[in-house]
Amino acid sequence: MNPIFLLLFAILCSGGLDSAFVDGISTIKPGEELKSDAYLVSEGGNFTLGFFTIEETSYSYIGIWYTNDDQQSKVWVANRNSPISDNSSVLTVDSTTGILKIIRGGNTILNISDQVTGNNVTATLEDTGNFVLTDWVEKRTLWQSFDHPTDTLLPGMKLGFNSATGKSWSLTSWLSASVPASGAFTLSWEPNQDSGELVMHRRGERYWTSGTLKDQTFKYMSALNMGMYFNLSYTSTNDEKYFTFNRINGSLWMLRLDSDGQIAEGPSGLRFGPFKFCYGYESDDGCVTSELPHCRRRNDNFTQKRVYFLPNITTRQDDDNSSLSFIDCMERCWNECNCVAFNVYSNGTGCITWTGRSEYKEDDVNIDPLYLLLRDPKSSKGKCIFLVICNS
Ligand SMILES: *[C@@H]1O[C@H](CO)[C@@H](O)[C@H](O)[C@H]1NC(C)=O
Ligand SMILES: *[C@@H]1O[C@H](CO)[C@@H](O)[C@H](O)[C@H]1NC(C)=O
Ligand SMILES: *[C@@H]1O[C@H](CO)[C@@H](O)[C@H](O)[C@H]1NC(C)=O
Ligand SMILES: *[C@@H]1O[C@H](CO)[C@@H](O)[C@H](O)[C@H]1NC(C)=O
Ligand SMILES: *[C@@H]1O[C@H](CO)[C@@H](O)[C@H](O)[C@H]1NC(C)=O
Ligand SMILES: *[C@@H]1O[C@H](CO)[C@@H](O)[C@H](O)[C@H]1NC(C)=O
Ligand SMILES: *[C@@H]1O[C@H](CO)[C@@H](O)[C@H](O)[C@H]1NC(C)=O
Ligand SMILES: *[C@@H]1O[C@H](CO)[C@@H](O)[C@H](O)[C@H]1NC(C)=O
Ligand SMILES: *[C@@H]1O[C@H](CO)[C@@H](O)[C@H](O)[C@H]1NC(C)=O
Ligand SMILES: *[C@@H]1O[C@H](CO)[C@@H](O)[C@H](O)[C@H]1NC(C)=O
């Protein structure tokens, strides 16, 4: 949809914003309400903010996306961990406290900003994609979405920290492609003497590092020439150390941390790395090494296959805990010695595991693929014994 259409749409569906609104529709003033069928569009039309609903779950969220992005990849989500299950919630700026918040029937569902500031404020969606709460008397920024990133870094956003204020900027993946809730992966910036590197954690544990940023690329993200798409840079002052990037040409660029721990450019589908899951035995591609469970060996891995298991030899267990993501299920199966395969539900959360003997039949068409543990034939126990005998 082009910006003009959105503008007309938002005006025609009046009641979208309360009648109090007069100036452009990139801004909400205290007491004004953005309803679930209305949008804010930044002044130059680059970005749109509004409610969106995820089909698989029927939950609604408030998000920001590039106006011209056909896929409407969400570059920011206001309420990722507080989904809305009705269509009568509205986004507003409280007319006494100045807090940006989501309300329903007069009750606060979620405070988005946290500072009580009085009502000399406006909330504006800027052409950079930043949603900014400003005290227009003191010309001061009180809160901005760029300080609360979700899973996406836009041109001009910072990834790093300010050691004077204690503020830090990091990305946290969605739980799955259809669940925006905080997922297993985070991405942060670790400065070093000359530059710095991106560091990915999985559930708080170091998982992968990008290698130092040098000559417009990262050592372990060099498969694609990132410099063709982004102008990568870092800043290091006494207080602030951060990574940032500019667009090189006029596209919809963004850097996103996917729910499976991949760094990708959103709408184009380009992936920059790490291109694989880190099991803990690799060390040459940025993966952080860790001690393997005693029953797992170097090069064992999970491979997607259409198979079914024989009853009474392999047992299926379901855990519908929807805080578990794909990578949590993989880790669970990896660490549980009698686990031979796993999967997630179709919404990408919850774990299904198979334990017992890995005896299965392949089926090309009729069943959903699952993730089967494959042992590396070269590093099997048998070979070790053979070598020991040979050498002695
Ligand atoms: C909200 O949902 C109700 C019931 O599903 C529906 O009748 C109504 O039209 C919806 N309103 C809007 C503004 O979408
Ligand atoms: C929102 O903030 C106001 C003002 O600080 C506070 O009184 C209220 O309890 C908060 N509500 C929620 C749901 O956090
Ligand atoms: C709002 O601005 C006016 C001046 O325009 C000032 O007198 C008033 O104290 C301000 N209110 C708050 C809560 O800051
Ligand atoms: C808005 O988009 C245009 C075209 O993509 C781009 O040239 C411009 O820099 C963008 N404005 C901002 C403030 O990012
Ligand atoms: C601009 O972006 C396109 C991808 O849309 C890319 O192929 C091209 O190399 C970029 N231009 C420059 C000058 O880097
Ligand atoms: C890259 O960004 C730096 C700092 O923001 C700027 O000085 C430089 O001109 C940019 N280079 C290109 C090719 O856009
Ligand atoms: C599997 O085990 C159940 C009891 O646990 C038994 O009733 C059934 O006959 C067994 N099936 C086969 C094919 O062995
Ligand atoms: C669901 O999984 C999360 C993450 O592992 C865990 O913290 C939580 O306790 C689990 N909830 C239940 C009900 O088991
Ligand atoms: C995902 O699907 C499972 C099984 O259908 C369901 O129990 C669970 O609540 C869903 N999770 C979410 C977040 O919708
Ligand atoms: C998994 O391991 C097998 C056997 O060691 C190997 O052939 C395959 O390429 C590996 N797959 C992945 C995705 O690493």
Automatic annotation (TrEMBL):
Domain Apple residues, every copy: 295-365
Keyword set includes Transport: no
GO cellular component: plasma membrane
Top EC class of this enzyme: transferase
Molecular function via GO: ATP binding; carbohydrate binding; protein serine/threonine kinase activity
Chief subcellular location: membrane
CDD domains: B_lectin (cd00028)
Keyword Transmembrane helix: yes
SUPFAM superfamilies, alphabetized: alpha-D-mannose-specific plant lectins
Catalytic activity: L-seryl-[protein] + ATP = O-phospho-L-seryl-[protein] + ADP + H(+); L-threonyl-[protein] + ATP = O-phospho-L-threonyl-[protein] + ADP + H(+)
Signal peptide positions (record): 1-19
Protein name as it appears in the record: non-specific serine/threonine protein kinase
Entry's EC annotation: 2.7.11.1
Listed Gene3D superfamilies: Bulb-type lectin domain (2.90.10.10)
Location relative to the cell: Cell membrane
Membrane topology: Single-pass type I membrane protein
